[in-house]
C-alpha cells in the first residue's frame, strides 16, 4: 500500500498496485475506486 498526502484525487490517496504489483494498470485499487471492488 502507498499513501500520498496531499493526494492527487482526494485529500489523501491510499492505494495498492493490485495483484500484478505494477502501478498504473487496471487492477490498481485506491480509495477513489474502492466501490468497484466492493460490489
TrEMBL record:
InterPro entries according to UniProt: Pilin-like, T2SS_protein-GspG_C
Q: Where is the Type II secretion system protein GspG C-terminal domain?
A: 1-32
Report residue spans for region: Disordered: 18-39
What is the name of this protein? Type II secretion system protein GspG C-terminal domain-containing protein
Tell me the classification of the organism that encodes this protein.
unclassified sequences, metagenomes, ecological metagenomes
Amino acid at each position: 500500500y502507498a499513501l500520498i498526502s496531499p493526494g492527487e484525487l482526494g485529500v489523501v490517496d491510499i492505494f495498492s498496485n493490485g495483484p500484478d504489483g505494477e502501478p498504473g494498470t487496471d487492477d490498481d485499487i485506491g480509495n477513489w475506486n474502492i466501490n468497484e471492488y466492493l460490489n
